[in-house]
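Q: What structure does this chain adopt?
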Amino acid sequence: MKIAVLRERFEGEGRVAATPETVAKYIGLGAEVSVEKGAGAGSRIADTLYVEAGATMGANAAATLKGADIVLVVRRPAAADLAGVNKGALLIGALDPYGNEKDVAALAKAGISAMAMEFMPRITRAQVMDILSSQANLAGYQAVIEAAAAFERAMPMMMTAAGTVRPAKAFVMGAGVAGLQAIATAKRLGAVVSATDVRAAAGEQVESLGAKFIMTEALKDASGSGGYARELTKDEQAAQAELVAGHISKQDIVVTTALIPGRPAPKLVSKAMVESMAPGSVIVDLAAERGGNVELTQPGKVITHNGVTIIGYTNLAGHIPTTASQLYARNLLSFIDTLVDKQEKKLAIDWDDELVKATVLTRDGAIVHPNFVNVAPAEAAKPVAVPKPAPKKPAAKAEAKDAPVKKGAVKKPATRKAPAKKPAAPKAKPAAAAKPATKTPAAKKPAASKEGQ
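A:
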């Protein structure tokens, strides 16, 4: 069993999928570990540390991947960049499949068994494997650190001989893992913190951290599946926007964290709301990678509008890569530990295990994840359902079949052969047109509902 660890090629990505700590444990499971030269440089991990842990260093990606049974990554590589791995090799990492279905299909075609760690179910036994939680926790912390640096004022209240400095007011939108850590970090830095969330249950968690929870009375609860929030109705969105507009103008720092898996980030902060804030205020948009919660956010950039700084970094966890890599690598190790037979010291994947079924995207040359498996068939059905030239030949046969039916039903018009053929032709055309009309919506509905999950 060979495990390959690649150097990340995504611009600005300093994290690595394995650390010397996890390499040593993989070797303990009976694996041979090959790490590409320079893989840990972005996380301040020297190649010599991997060698000391028992890994071999690959001079390049090709040498590292040759004969690999498992490939560990932070970001999804192109299928063409995985040449040399064994047939059916596992690709494990944050594969970001939504909106990248063509790349997922390419992995399937290449014979790769791709496993998306961000699809790990939120159950007790999988908590230690949850990369979304480990990285979101760090992103929430780093968001406040970035905001404090850009704020250019003191965060806590200070009573000095020269007078009192009022504390900064911080507002966190979304009380998930990232939001709760942002609240805790802002409190530790001395800010007066408030937070909002569309899930009523989040109120207790917010208040337990010493922050004030605000929620519009028009929105009782918008909890969705898997611990995420569902999409709000138009009325709920309007009520939430009214609440935010009245509160945000009084804040110094705003951190937005709202994301719905598989969908663009909901817009929570309008241009008008930004303009209502005092000059020198700071907004950190943790949803920038999905378009942002703020109307003015520019993904990957820091901009200033009307004196308000808007930070749109797309990889905040990657801004503290050493810590992020440590947690991410342990997430992957915990998952791989469930895939290995400890006595035989080899891979023994139970494809019916709930963790495997939830994360596997591709297997045996096909896309198998339920959120994506119907994409290709739906597209393939269109040319079959709407073949305009093809129905012309069967149309003649259809007329021949319809004629006897009419003769049996009404004998008098049987002498009028010419008129009998004319009605038959128009009936065949609507029948052909009716098929695509029913198939097209049927293909769309499952895709939309699964995407929402």
